[in-house]
């Protein structure tokens, strides 16, 4: 009897058959293995089983550019390492360094060379040194590359293999259904050695979409992934992955082949000897976003994209009604999967994830409040040609200065509340460096660089930043100290494991609360946050605390007595009430 194929071979063959049904699938499978496990490398005998051991309550991630801190003398990556080791030890244990490769535009997301470190930042020794002390996340910008890089140059000259690396469109095709995150024309006309072509540009005319219908493109990306893993990368952020596969006449987003490619990458990671986590970046409504978990066979983690607009709305409006309604309907992540929770990033606050969650009039009030705080609005083109808000561009610290009723004296407490919510929820918390540093809006950068997103991509002059952090009264020192204290405290609570049980509490609409229970069921935490400027009282009995146990608020140190008075929440106060104080 013929021997049965092993599980890896069978699964890989099935996925390749779904992606490239007309190709020589056996040859592609062989090439995939050689790309991901080149000579001298080997894979596990068995797949790494889905579990909750890939992460713990100690995990938290800092999001930063390689040059968010500069001084004009030392390499920015050296300065980043100094900041991480001197300020972030014990606060976060992971760092997402946004694209650190040579690039031509979009602050790194138009990559010219995936195999090099931008020399203006440092080199691979700097990257690997950081990776030895922190879990390193890097960007796999796999949907597109720079029009000014060697791949596209060789395409224009008709040189193999790059003459088939880019997706060519036809202006005569029906492209009305294509989902766009930008307002620029989808196709760019270029003159190549082989004549006039129309290349596909989902994001900008400097970012040319790759053609994954050509297996050589996938193989090259797998070689790049292997190189990054060898350099110490342990979390791979699949940038703009939802747009990977194109078929005219369709929305060209979330197509079955795209999901199959993510599943293929997950399969390779499950058999890798290194522990590698896949994170998908899909800034889309909830159901579409959650689809990238697959059946525990796609992303290990997905961004919790509805959180930023919903938390912003809750704290600007003073009601957690919509945040509570959304969270109550969120499923727990499957075994082996986790949410990545955040409120701010290098991009703006996406408004697409708010679709179907926040009514249009509430979205309009958020936009009004953010613009009153000095923020900007970026638009996208709808299939019918109209434009709609795509994201809000504003420093989150500045956005929290403003409520629907204007400014007040609770700015710091309101901002800290927004970050504490992220620390409390099921999942892994991630914090943009400019949130940790209470960075104000950088309007000068917007004017200088001609892009809205520059408002929240400030580059701190390190001596100036250190001076701010030495001043205990500065916004920077207060925010970093308070957030660091809470993150250190959080890392010691087993009830804050990313997969610990979570139940959304039904409370006064001015309060947003969840009950978390550790995997061993020994610790419970009632994490409750006042999102309003009002004093709010809650009976201890209304949150189902078990009688006979000692309950303490970890954040204030107060004992919570079941037979005592109501629990009082000052404006924007947060409490972590636990039985394991």
From TrEMBL:
- Cross-referenced InterPro entries: GGa_phosphorylase, GH, GH13_cat_dom, Glyco_hydro_b, O16G_dom_2, Sucrose_GGa_phosphorylase-rel
What is the protein name for this chain? Alpha-amylase
> So where does this one cross the membrane?
none
Q: Does the keyword Transferase apply?
A: yes
Respond yes or no to whether keyword GTP-binding is given for this record: no
Q: Which PANTHER family match?
A: SUCROSE PHOSPHORYLASE
Top enzyme class of this protein?
transferase
Q: What keywords would UniProt list here?
A: Glycosyltransferase, Transferase
Q: EC number(s) of the enzyme?
A: 2.4.1.7
Q: Where does substrate bind?
A: 106, 144, 237-239, 346-347, 453
Lineage, top-rank taxon, reads Bacteria
Q: What's one GO MF term for it?
A: sucrose phosphorylase activity
Q: Which Gene3D superfamilies match?
A: Glycosidases (3.20.20.80), Golgi alpha-mannosidase II (2.60.40.1180), Oligo-1,6-glucosidase, Domain 2 (3.90.400.10)
A single Gene Ontology biological process assigned to it is: carbohydrate metabolic process
Q: What sequence ranges are listed for the domain Glycosyl hydrolase family 13 catalytic? A: 68-429
């Amino acid at each position: 009897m013929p021997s049965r194929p092993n599980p890896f071979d069978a699964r890989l063959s099935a996925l390749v058959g779904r992606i490239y049904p007309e190709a020589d699938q056996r040859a592609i499978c062989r090439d995939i293995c050689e790309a991901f496990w080149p000579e001298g490398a080997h894979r596990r005998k068995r797949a790494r089983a889905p579990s909750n051991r890939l992460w713990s309550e100690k995990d938290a991630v800092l999001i930063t550019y390689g040059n968010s801190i500069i001084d004009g003398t030392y390499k920015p990556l050296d300065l980043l390492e100094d900041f991480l080791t001197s300020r972030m030890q014990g606060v976060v244990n992971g760092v997402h360094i946004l694209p650190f490769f040579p690039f031509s535009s979009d602050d790194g997301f138009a990559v010219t060379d995936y195999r090099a470190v931008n020399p203006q930042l440092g080199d691979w020794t700097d990257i690997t040194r950081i990776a030895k002390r922190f879990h390193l996340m890097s960007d796999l910008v796999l949907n597109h590359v720079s029009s000014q890089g060697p791949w596209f140059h060789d395409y224009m000259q008709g040189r193999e293999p790059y003459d088939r690396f880019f997706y060519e469109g036809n202006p005569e095709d029906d492209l009305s259904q294509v989902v766009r995150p930008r307002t620029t024309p989808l196709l760019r006309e270029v003159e190549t050695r082989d004549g006039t072509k129309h290349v596909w540009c989902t994001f900008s005319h400097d970012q040319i979409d790759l053609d994954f219908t050509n297996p050589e493109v996938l193989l090259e990306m797998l070689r790049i992934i292997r190189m990054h893993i060898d350099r110490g990368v342990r979390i791979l952020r699949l940038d703009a992955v939802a747009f990977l596969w194109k078929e005219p006449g369709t929305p060209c987003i979330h197509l079955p082949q795209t999901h199959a490619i993510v599943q293929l990458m997950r399969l390779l990671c499950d058999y890798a000897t290194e522990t590698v986590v896949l994170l998908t970046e899909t800034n889309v409504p909830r159901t579409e976003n959650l689809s990238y978990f697959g059946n525990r066979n796609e992303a290990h983690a997905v961004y919790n994209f509805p959180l930023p607009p919903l938390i912003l709305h809750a704290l600007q409006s003073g009601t957690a009604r919509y945040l509570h309604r959304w969270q109550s309907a969120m499923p727990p992540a499957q075994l082996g999967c986790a949410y990545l929770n955040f409120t701010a990033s290098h991009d703006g606050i996406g408004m697409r994830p708010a679709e179907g969650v926040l009514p249009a009039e509430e979205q309009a009030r958020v936009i009004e409040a953010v613009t009153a705080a000095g923020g900007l609005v970026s638009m996208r083109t709808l299939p019918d040609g109209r434009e709609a808000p795509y994201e809000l561009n504003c420093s989150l610290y500045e956005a929290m200065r403003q409520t629907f009723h204007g400014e007040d004296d609770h700015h710091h407490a309101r901002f800290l509340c927004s970050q504490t919510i992220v620390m409390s929820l099921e999942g892994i918390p991630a914090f943009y460096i400019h949130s940790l540093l209470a960075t104000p809006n950088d309007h000068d950068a917007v004017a200088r660089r001609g892009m809205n997103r520059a408002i929240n991509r400030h580059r701190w002059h390190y001596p100036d930043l250190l001076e701010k952090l030495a001043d205990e009264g500065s916004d920077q020192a207060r925010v970093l100290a308070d957030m660091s204290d809470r993150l250190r405290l959080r890392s010691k609570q087993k009830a804050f494991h990313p997969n610990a049980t979570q139940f959304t509490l039904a409370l006064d609409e001015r309060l947003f609360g969840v009950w978390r229970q550790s995997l061993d069921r020994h610790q419970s935490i009632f994490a409750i946050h006042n999102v309003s400027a009002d004093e709010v009282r809650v009976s201890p009995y209304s949150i189902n605390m078990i009688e006979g146990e000692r309950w303490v608020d970890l954040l204030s140190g107060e004992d919570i007595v079941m037979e005592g008075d109501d629990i009082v929440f000052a404006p924007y106060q947060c409490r972590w009430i636990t039985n394991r104080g």
